[in-house]
Amino acid sequence: MHYDLIIVGGGLVGSSLALALRESELKIALIEASLPQADNPRLFGLTESSCQSLKNLGLWQQLKEHATPIHQVHVSYQGYFGAVRLNHADVGLSQLGYVIPARYLEKILHAEIIQQANITYYCPATLKNLQQTHVATLNIVTGEGEKNLLSPIVIAADGAASTVRSLLNIETEIVDYQQGAIVTETMLQRSHQHIAYERFNASGAIAMLPLVGDRCATIWTADQMTIDQLMALSDECFVTALQKEFGYRLGRLLGIAKRHAFPLKMIQAKETHKQCVLLLGNAAHALHPIAAQGFNLALYEVSALSAAMLDKNNKYESFTSNDLQKIIQCTQKQRFFSMQASHQLARLPNYHSLVLNMFLSLGMVGLDITKPLKSNLIKRISGLLH
């Protein structure tokens, strides 16, 4: 079975790419191992640029009721007097971005994908083998048995444990932060006022991101031993510990939803392009969530890739392996920024130097009162400056 494009991984990244190409002449195969999970605990802080990408996909009208705008970001370090406040008004935006639970995004993307005439959706299906000559041949296992699919271009969007990456023997560089993250939702006594908080402490950070209603998405990162201890607490004791570490900027914390724990690593593929295959999203670079850059970077790359493919398609030209290399080059700057921002922020709690921490406090105060610096930082984080 021949296709113009095969996408391995029908999650958020793979589905976004397929949907971006729905009005093209391309015949697309989308391979996914499992259906969307109604209890997916992940949450995304979407930049303004990412929101525009979702609008371009025609999804925003359905998503906006589940999305909460961020008007201000407040960053502080426990025990030090400095803080950085990034406000939407500093760059003339109505908001800096939005927070949205992944389960809504997955559900809406899936509903759109199955309606597209040019997309063949194989789900559940698993990739068994991949070979490359002048085209790629993929052997997949479906409920109807094994199938062989052929295409000149393959996009691997199958996550941090990428099967495609493994089959192609692409090595990875792994930074194990010896940390974990607890993700939950916290009920508040009062409104969050659309402020997203990031509170660094001695062992990690606590992010409190506004959700619809008087709720916040809570992401607590710390060393693995601390995470294990926090997960062992009762809900009541966990809320008490969270209140003590985070403080009362959001008033009294009333309760939490179910907690989920994840190990934290940065995984970077040593090659993101091999012959006619391109790694995308977490298959190419899984980031620490502290700077909320992972999915935003993936959407940026999806936009660049789909724009290039549509341009070729409109000119009745074939998209080639050389074009994949050009995509890597044009997205390199943003990819480097996103990865470095995530990596350096993740390492902040390891800096225990008194002098360094003093400069950190002074630096936060200096940034907070220096509008040009703040404006450039906001634009970079929001994806408006590449």
List keywords for this structure.
35% helix; alpha+beta; 12 helices; disordered C terminus; FAD/NAD(P)-binding domain; six-stranded mixed sheet; nine-stranded mixed sheet
| Fraction in beta strands | 25-35%
Query: CATH superfamily assignment of the domain at 5-39 and 102-173 and 267-344?
Result: FAD/NAD(P)-binding domain
User: What coarse outline follows from CA principal-axis ratios?
Assistant: globular
Q: What is the β-strand count?
A: 21
Radius of gyration of CA atoms, rounded to a whole number: 21 Å
Enter the CATH topology name of the domain at 5-39 and 102-173 and 267-344. Answer: FAD/NAD(P)-binding domain
In which range does the helix fraction lie? 25-40%
- Main sheet attributes: strand count, strand direction, barrel closure: 9 strands, mixed
Distance between the termini: 39 Å
Q: What's the architecture of the domain at 5-39 and 102-173 and 267-344, going by CATH?
A: 3-Layer(bba) Sandwich
Unreliable parts: 351-370, 381-386
Structural class: alpha+beta
The mean pLDDT is 84
Number of helices: 12
CATH class of the domain at 5-39 and 102-173 and 267-344: Alpha Beta
What does this protein structure show overall?
With 386 residues, the protein is α+β, with helices and mostly antiparallel strands. The protein has a domain at 5-39 and 102-173 and 267-344: FAD/NAD(P)-binding domain (3-Layer(bba) Sandwich), CATH 3.50.50. It is built from twelve helices and 21 strands. The strands form four sheets. Strands 5, 6, 13, 14, 15, 16, 17, 18 and 21 form a nine-stranded mixed beta sheet that branches. A six-stranded mixed beta sheet has the order 8-2-1-12-20-19, with helices on one face. The protein has a three-stranded antiparallel beta sheet with strand order 3-7-4. α1 packs across α4 (102-113), α1 runs parallel beside α8 and α8 packs across α9 (321-330). The longest helix has 21 residues, at 294-314. The chain is globular and about 60 Å long.
